[in-house]
Design brief:
Layout: H1 9-20, E1 46-52, E2 55-61, H2 66-77, E3 86-90, E4 94-97, E5 119-121, E6 135-138, E7 146-148, E8 152-155, H3 162-185, H4 189-199, H5 203-224, H6 233-241, E9 254-260, H7 262-269, E10 285-291, E11 299-300
Antiparallel strand pairs: 1-2, 1-10, 2-9, 3-4, 4-8, 5-7, 6-8, 6-9, 10-11
Helix pairs in contact: 3-5, 4-5
């Protein structure tokens, strides 16, 4: 939904500049050796190949999520993911990677707590890009607002019933309304804080305070008209007959999908794992490379 698509480009540029300007011994080299290599990234779909010790996975990165696509391409060009592990797996849910400390990690070591320092503004539109079987999505500690700079996951998921989808629609629409409510209040925050303090001492001010919140509530209800989210017939059929992770829709950015290799993703998701959800046998990303097009078999070398 547009209400959640907060593509604050200036903030992203500043974050990238900070990340690429700190922690390196060489000018332009940032944390984990990351350089900003794709300033002229084309406005088009991008195809990438993940080579693992279990097999290969071909991905499509959507042009409609340019911030996430460009960032992922840049990390691939830097060789950031090469040698890392899929450090977290969940049967009937997903497999996850992106922790740079997973490279050569000791057996049993807890992973997943290290990330690049910058975040990416959310690019969420669950009416177009949703957590279907094979979806590629960005992890986040601040759902619906920003994404991790490097952690990603691939959905396997489970089949669900209409009742599950109905409940999520209700939950997500409440989230949309709350977001609208908070946005409406922002310009009046000083007034609200002052009136709140006065309301503790005056019955009249308390009444004014309640009227003000009634005003915002009515405004939020009005703003919700035409914005309510509902799963499309295609989404409902897919989630019921194929599977996915419907409960993540609206909260995390889906920025691509698997084109080939879902058998590999499925096999990885079913492996034995420890108390930290880490596969007992390491699932290694040998390398991720760019492809010239969807049908390419040759990889484009990293810059």
């Amino acid at each position: 939904m547009k209400v959640f698509v907060k593509c604050i480009i200036l903030c992203l540029v500043a974050a990238f500049a900070s990340a690429c300007g700190a922690g390196g011994n060489e000018e332009g080299v940032g944390e984990f050796g990351i350089r900003q290599l794709n300033e002229d990234s084309p406005d088009s779909d991008q195809y990438v190949l993940i080579e693992t010790n279990r097999g290969n996975i071909k991905l499509l990165l959507y042009k409609e999520t340019p911030l996430h696509r460009k960032n992922f391409v840049n990390l691939v060009k830097n060789g950031y993911y090469n040698g890392q592990l899929f450090f977290r797996i969940k049967k009937n849910f997903m497999i996850q990677a992106g922790d740079p400390t997973s490279r050569n990690a000791k057996p049993g070591q807890k992973l997943g707590e290290t990330d690049v320092s910058y975040k990416i503004p959310a690019e969420i539109d669950p009416t177009r890009f949703w957590h279907k079987y094979g979806a590629l999505s960005a992890a986040s500690l601040n759902p619906a607002v920003e994404s991790s700079g490097s952690h990603f996951y691939i959905i396997t998921g489970n089949k669900v019933k209409d009742s599950h989808l109905n409940n999520h629609e209700k939950k997500y629409n409440k989230t949309i309304r709350r977001q609208l409510y908070e946005e409406l209040q922002k310009p009046y925050q000083d007034k609200i804080n002052k009136l709140h303090a006065e309301a503790q001492k005056s019955a009249k001010k308390k009444s004014e305070f309640n009227e003000l919140f009634k005003f915002f509530s009515e405004k939020a209800d009005s703003a919700m008209v035409g914005r309510e989210f509902s799963f499309s017939p295609e989404q409902r059929t897919h989630y019921k007959e194929v599977g996915g992770a419907f409960h993540l829709d609206g909260y995390y950015t889906v920025f691509g999908e698997v084109l080939e290799g879902m058998d590999i993703v499925e096999a990885v998701s079913l492996e034995a794992y420890d108390v930290h959800d880490r596969p007992v046998k390491d699932v290694v990303i040998k390398r991720i490379t760019l492809l010239e097009n969807e049908n390419a078999n040759q990889q484009t070398p990293a810059e």
